[in-house]
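Technical annex, item 7. During the second reporting period the consortium partners agreed on a shared format for inverse folding records so that results from different sites could be compared directly. Each record opens with the tokenized structure and is followed by the designed sequence. A conforming record, contributed by the partner at site C, is shown below for reference.
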């Protein structure tokens, strides 16, 4: 799914109207009724007995609010409308005013006289924001944010620009949920905006497909619909050699579980064979913990030193639980230099930390190697950033300069490729913020690489499958008790789900 800017959204809206032969009010009515239905479905328990306040602006976002108010009233709900006093309203906003009684108008300095509890729908501004809101707006935004009930926003939290990072003290509505039209917006995906965006849901309002196709963008939101064509089913004549052989390289005394989890995840993600390359102390752990894996031992008991790994593996996942002992660093550096140019690599955890501390090693990474840093590891690699947008710019520059793929982990993990494209993931949940989840991701992506997926596809698909397995696991154990092993147990559901969708 594409992520578009405000100018592009305007074009797509207009072309939809032209191509469908409808007028703009009809499109607004359609969009609004989709929000109304979603609100009734999601919040029936609240709105069936408590009042709904809708705060509307002078543009088309306000027009949506007026339409939603009418539709909810027609369905019997108790709705109060507050509309900004203005010299000019958009035409569809005016049309919708004419179809509604009991509108209360307000000025910026007024008391909005909101109900004490219930439900508030924020329709002050959508994608038409041209700059951040000035301080004149503080009173209005504060009254909305002080509302004691549930606050939801239509299209955008009002005051948040489509492609900006908001600050804590800015005049921006803090929505527990945002219903956004047709496309996710960049600002909704940035972790620093999470105070304004509790969660968001994209509502399909049927905008013109051809018009959307024409819009160029470097930002995408990854959903099942764009992955089902990527995921391959297995041919009847395939054998284990068809699906590649992954080497998981890592482990040290006390951190062998990381290798166990990456190894299991790799095989569960479809590669034909998996070998763990570990220090001696991990032998029993691996052989007993996961008998399907083969094991190669380093000469050292407690850490990796030799890196005597043949180069006939189809992909390598390196770094999990590996530690940064001096001898490990030396051995790892020599091994990197020995790699064939077309080797396929995933680097995680200590492999990343070693590279941050020994930058000269970067040049030995084969092009399109995949690096999977969490925020702290990313900082060590690319340096400090001012805000989430700056982080993306720095990540793009790093990826381009070194011809590497970065997977920036977190909620809505972002995959950045050397061409400067960014793919935000849509799956996963906060239950995944626990130890070992990253090891599982390394196993999944290495496995996909070994199976012949190109590096970008392996990263995008792997991150999606990882989050999806986390979501299936959450359905069984909830977020609090979710651990990495649960996620591995649900990899099968994640793959089956995606394969079913493509049939
Ligand atoms: N055009 C269409 O066909 C559709 C539009 N829709 C709705 O229309 C919205 C966009 O509507 P508009 O383009 O009218 O924009 P908005 O309703 O977001 O607001 C624009 C108004 O805010 C003012 N404004 C902008 N920045 C300001 C600032 N910093 N301080 C004070 N005032 C400021 C502008 O002068 C303008 O009057 C979408 O977000 C969506 O909610 C939906 O109804 C779907 C269909
Ligand atoms: N709030 C969240 N929502 C979705 N995914 C998350 C969230 N928090 C963490 N994750 C995912 O869990 C994984 C954690 O990886 P990492 O921090 O490397 O863990 P570890 O080092 O403990 O294995 C990443 O893939 C990340 O995207
Ligand atoms: K809004």
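Designed sequence (site C submission):
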């Amino acid at each position: 799914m594409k992520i578009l800017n405000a100018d592009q959204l305007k074009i797509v809206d207009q072309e939809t109207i032209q191509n469908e032969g409808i007028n703009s009010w009809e499109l607004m009515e359609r969009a609004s009724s989709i929000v109304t239905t979603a609100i009734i479905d999601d919040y029936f328990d609240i709105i069936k007995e408590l009042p709904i306040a809708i705060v509307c602006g002078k543009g088309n976002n306000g027009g949506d609010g007026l339409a939603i108010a009418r539709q909810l009233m027609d369905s019997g709900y108790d709705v109060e409308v507050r509309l900004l006093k203005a010299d000019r309203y958009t035409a569809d906003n005016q049309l919708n005013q004419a179809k509604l009684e009991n509108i209360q108008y307000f000025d910026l300095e007024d008391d909005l006289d909101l109900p004490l509890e219930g439900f508030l729908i924020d329709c002050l501004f959508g994608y038409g924001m041209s700059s951040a809101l000035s301080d004149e707006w503080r009173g209005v935004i504060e009254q909305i944010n002080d509302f004691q009930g549930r606050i939801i926003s239509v299209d955008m939290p009002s005051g948040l620009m489509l492609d900006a990072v908001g600050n804590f003290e800015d005049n921006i509505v803090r929505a527990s949920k945002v219903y956004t039209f047709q496309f996710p917006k960049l600002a909704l995906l940035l972790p620093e905006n999470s105070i304004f965006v509790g969660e968001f849901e994209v509502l399909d309002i049927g905008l013109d497909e051809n018009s959307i196709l024409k819009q160029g963008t470097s930002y995408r939101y990854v959903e099942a619909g764009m992955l089902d064509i990527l995921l391959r089913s297995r041919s009847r004549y395939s054998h284990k050699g068809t699906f590649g052989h992954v080497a998981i390289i890592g482990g040290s005394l006390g951190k062998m579980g990381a290798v166990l989890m990456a190894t299991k995840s790799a095989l569960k993600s479809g590669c034909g064979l998996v070998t763990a390359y570990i220090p001696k102390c991990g032998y029993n752990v691996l052989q007993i913990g996961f008998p399907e894996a083969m094991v190669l031992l380093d000469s050292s008991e407690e850490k990796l030193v030799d890196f005597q790994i043949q180069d006939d593996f189809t992909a390598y996942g390196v770094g999990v639980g590996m530690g940064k002992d001096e001898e490990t660093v030396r051995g790892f550096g020599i091994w990197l230099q020995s790699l064939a140019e077309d080797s396929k690599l995933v680097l995680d955890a200590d492999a990343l930390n070693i590279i941050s501390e020994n930058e000269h090693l970067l040049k030995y990474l084969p092009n399109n190697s995949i690096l999977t840093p969490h925020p702290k590891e990313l900082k060590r690699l690319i340096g400090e950033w001012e805000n989430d947008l700056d982080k993306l710019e720095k990540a793009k520059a790093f990826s381009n300069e070194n011809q590497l793929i970065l997977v920036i982990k977190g909620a809505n993990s972002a995959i950045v490729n050397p061409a400067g494209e960014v793919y935000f993931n849509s799956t996963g949940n906060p239950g995944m913020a626990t130890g070992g989840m990253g090891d599982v991701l390394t196993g999944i992506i290495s496995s996909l690489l070994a199976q012949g997926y190109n590096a970008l596809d392996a990263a995008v698909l792997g991150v999606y499958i990882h989050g999806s397995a986390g979501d299936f696991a959450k359905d069984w154990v909830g977020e609090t008790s979710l651990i990495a092993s649960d996620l591995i147990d649900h990899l099968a559901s994640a793959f089956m789900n995606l394969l079913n969708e493509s049939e």
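The two ends are 20 Å apart (CA to CA). The pocket of NAX (ligand 1) is lined by residues 13, 24, 27-28, 31, 57-62, 64, 90, 125-131, 133, 154-155, 181 (CB under 6 Å). All partners now use this format for quarterly exchanges.
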